[in-house]
């Protein structure tokens, strides 16, 4: 595959994974958890490096996933103590991210751990860091990782589809039916953390947040059916990757920022043109 094709494929895989996960974040009214986790995983990466003194390896991903789960646990704990959900997310998000930044500044030294790179990403570097796969040849590590994560996300979503559908719309009913709501919540947060970790090293935290929230919010405007919403959200994520790359190429600007920009454009289009909740359709119904 060409250099450009690897970049587009990598971004499309981010769009697919984040689009699927994002639907359940929107339905659970936990969209800002994506923003929190995408930033607090930095603390997990920093601590993993401080323990092992190595920048590469599975320990980095493990540290980031643990940090994501720790974030979800602390937010849930504050809520159980009567703190509002939005306030809980804001407190934990800013505190843990700040600790990560402070540790980078004071304890890491000259190691190449860059806060700006973690936030903005640099997808143009993805095709250069490769590994050899039998039958496939040289494959970018980030692309391979994202493909594996996508398979895990799809498998887990299919395995717990009915349970997450019930817990997303009516947690009290799910609990009364004997469904382990708390366990499923942390399984879901593990998926969010895993997807975030796999994505932000290539595309940055900002695009990860955009892909997790905006395509799902756009899909929510078009349909009330969960299965259709998942397909639409994933499709919007892929379309944002393709169109975003085209915008970046034409304007000679940041690829990740352009993709995030396109997610916003698609949301505005959905907000205006959705046949049920769109601004134009509501205006027509009022005029009849």
From TrEMBL:
Localization terms from the record: Cell membrane
GO BP: any one term: transmembrane transport
Gene3D superfamilies reported in the protein's UniProt record: ABC transporter involved in vitamin B12 uptake, BtuC (1.10.3470.10)
Membrane topology, from the record: Multi-pass membrane protein
Domain of life of the organism encoding this protein: Bacteria
Residues spanning the membrane: 6-27, 34-52, 58-78, 90-113, 133-161, 173-196, 202-222, 229-251, 257-280
Primary location recorded for the protein, binned into one broad class: membrane
Alphabetized CDD domains for the sequence: TM_ABC_iron-siderophores_like
Keywords: Cell membrane, Membrane, Transmembrane, Transmembrane helix, Transport
InterPro entries hit by this protein: ABC_BtuC-like, ABC_TroCD
Keyword check for Transmembrane helix: yes
Pfam families reported for this sequence: ABC-3 (PF00950)
Record's keyword annotation contains Oxidoreductase: no
One GO CC term on file: ATP-binding cassette (ABC) transporter complex
SUPFAM superfamilies per UniProt: ABC transporter involved in vitamin B12 uptake, BtuC (SSF81345)
Cleaved signal peptide residues: none
Protein family: Belongs to the ABC-3 integral membrane protein family.
UniProt protein name: Manganese/zinc/iron transport system permease protein
Organism name: Aureibacillus halotolerans
Taxonomic path: Bacteria, Bacillati, Bacillota, Bacilli, Bacillales
């Amino acid at each position: 595959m060409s250099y450009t094709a690897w970049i587009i494929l990598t971004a499309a895989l981010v769009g697919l994974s984040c689009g699927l996960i994002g639907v359940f974040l929107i339905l659970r009214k936990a969209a800002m958890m994506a923003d929190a986790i995408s930033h607090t995983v930095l603390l997990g990466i920093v601590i993993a490096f401080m323990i092992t003194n190595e920048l590469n390896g599975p320990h980095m991903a493990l540290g980031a996933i643990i940090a994501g789960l720790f974030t979800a646990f602390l937010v849930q704990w504050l809520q159980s103590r009567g703190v509002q959900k939005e306030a809980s997310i804001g407190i934990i998000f800013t505190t843990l991210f700040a600790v990560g930044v402070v540790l980078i500044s004071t304890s890491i030294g000259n190691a190449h751990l860059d806060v700006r790179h973690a936030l903005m990403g640099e997808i143009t570097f993805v095709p250069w860091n490769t590994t050899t796969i039998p039958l496939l040849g040289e494959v970018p590590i980030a692309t391979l990782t994202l493909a594996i994560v996508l398979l895990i996300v799809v498998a887990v979503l299919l395995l717990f589809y009915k349970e997450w559908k019930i817990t997303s719309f009516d947690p009290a009913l799910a609990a009364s039916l004997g469904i382990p709501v708390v366990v499923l919540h942390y399984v879901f947060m593990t998926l969010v953390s895993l997807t975030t970790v796999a994505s932000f090293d290539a595309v940055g935290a900002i695009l990860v947040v955009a892909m997790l929230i905006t395509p799902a919010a756009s899909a929510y405007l078009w349909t009330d059916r969960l299965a259709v919403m998942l397909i639409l959200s994933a499709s919007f994520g892929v379309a944002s990757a393709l169109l975003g790359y085209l915008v970046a190429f034409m304007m000679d600007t940041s690829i990740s920022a352009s993709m995030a920009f396109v997610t916003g454009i698609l949301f505005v289009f959905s907000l205006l043109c959705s046949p049920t909740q769109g601004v134009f359709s509501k205006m027509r119904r009022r005029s009849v």
